[in-house]
Amino acid sequence: MLLQPKVLPFHVERNKLGSPCFTCTDSVSGELWQHVKVSAGRALLGLLVGGGLGLFLGLLNGSSKVASNLLDTTLQMIRNIPALALIPLVILWFGIDESAKLFLVAVGVFFPIYINTYHGIRSVDPQLIEMGKSYGLSRWQLYKDIILPGAMPSILVGLRFSLGLVWVLLIVAETISAQSGIGYMTMNAREFLQTDIVLVGILLYALLGKLADVFAQFLEKYLLRWHAGYQK
């Protein structure tokens, strides 16, 4: 649909507006896939940082009562702070560059993995641990052969939840002065009432979320192939 002169804001020059054929040219030029690659990179990096830290602290606090008493209460307090409420503070700390976006995504994906890892470690059957000790297993062998496999179903639930949540967080993160990414593309299209591009952005988030969930299911079946619930 072509924009008529009477609907243009007085302070906007017509040659500054996007083309009505934006969707077609965007796809042909490869700019759409560039936005997808940027968003996927941010999501992956945030997941690696936040998920890795969540896994480490979940294993630590789940295995050590001392560490749990020192850290868990503080982490639970931080967990109750909404990601949106952190945006002003994040901008003050990190400015408006990539660090701010990475921080928001990492904080959001940290807690599902941390909580499920912590719960998984604490839920391992103590009798299995005692049986392992009676067979003379070292502490590392106990951890590797009994505790980690026992906690793995819960850890993978946290990972699957985080893989879905990361795209929701990315929408928020990419509103912080982004110059690329699906969120930037969608917000920019909204400003010019380009509904088709907004719908493309929404569908891309849904598709990427679905692909992430399929990957999580594959990972569950592979890592838990010994589990009765995942055997055909």
Automatic annotation (TrEMBL):
Signal peptide: none annotated. Keywords: Cell membrane, Membrane, Transmembrane, Transmembrane helix, Transport. Residues 32-216 form the ABC transmembrane type-1 domain. It is found in: Cell membrane. GO terms for biological process: transmembrane transport. It is a multi-pass membrane protein. InterPro entries: MetI-like, MetI-like_sf. GO terms for cellular component: plasma membrane. Its main location: membrane. The chain crosses the membrane at residues 40-60, 80-96, 102-121, 165-185, 197-219. This is ABC transmembrane type-1 domain-containing protein. It comes from Oppiella nova.
